[in-house]
Design brief:
single chain, 237 residues, alpha/beta, Rossmann fold, DNA polymerase, domain 1, two-stranded antiparallel sheet, 8 strands, globular, HAD-like_sf, 2-HAD
Length: 237
């Protein structure tokens, strides 16, 4: 498919590029099982992730000042540990575990797909993840970004318009010269309303076998792809 005006692809990362659920389950197990704890580790990962949107909304609504996603992940982890009466981790161990989000594995198609897309387009994150998180995640998974954009450069969180517009502006591009790539319908709708082109990537396993949302494209996006390599194929990369 030809989209001649598009110069940059901006990517949602959690769920679209990396598999947060099984990665976080692995990290929780490695940290807690040696101390004798037994959980459904995937369910525990879901619980930690469950605090994500409520924490973002506190910032989006103005109920609290801007803080990075690393801070929110740390706070949500402390609450999760208290909920399950896990008290033996030291502050440094909690800090290290909170950085589990820096060590998420890419989906199997991600590195190849991004590398192919990079040959023709600028590729950049447009994520709620802060810069330190995104840089460490890129190093962990060999993700070949040209730029780390998104929430921290505008001190806002998706789906606030400035999060998208600030990333386009940072690249010196108009919104219509950028495409949002995401596995989440709401993210694409928000970007599309601001003039971004929209590219859906299907990730029906993001939340496990019981996933009921974002299992397909629900809107008339510019492209609907089954993977990042399929997206590269459709864009003739």
């Amino acid at each position: 498919m030809s989209l001649p005006a598009v110069k940059a692809l901006t990517f949602d990362v959690f769920g679209t590029v990396v598999d947060w659920r099984t990665s976080i389950a692995r990290e929780l197990r490695a940290a807690l099982e040696p101390a004798g704890h037994e959980f459904d580790w995937l369910q525990l990962a879901d619980e930690w992730r469950g605090g994500y949107q409520p924490a973002l909304e506190q910032v989006r609504s103005g109920a609290r000042p801007w803080v990075t996603l690393d801070v929110l992940h740390h706070e949500n982890l402390v609450e999760l540990l208290a909920k399950h009466d896990i008290a033996e981790l030291s502050e440094s161990e909690i800090e290290e575990l909170s950085h589990a989000w820096w060590r998420l594995d890419p989906w199997p198609d991600a590195v190849e797909g991004l590398s192919r897309l990079k040959q023709r387009f600028i590729i950049a994150t447009l994520s709620n993840g802060n810069i330190a998180l995104m840089v460490n995640l890129a190093k962990h998974g060999a993700l070949p970004w040209d730029a780390i954009l998104g929430a921290e450069i505008s001190h806002s969180y998706k789906e606030q318009p400035i999060t998208y517009l600030g990333s386009a502006e940072a690249l010196g591009l108009r919104p219509d010269e950028c495409a949002m790539v995401a596995a989440h319908n709401d993210d694409l709708v928000a970007a599309g309303a601001l003039g971004f082109r929209t590219m859906y990537v299907n990730r029906p396993a993001e939340h496990g076998p019981g996933q009921t949302t974002d299992i397909r494209a629900l809107h008339d996006f510019d492209i609907a792809a089954t993977s990042l390599t399929d997206l590269a194929r459709q864009l003739e990369c």
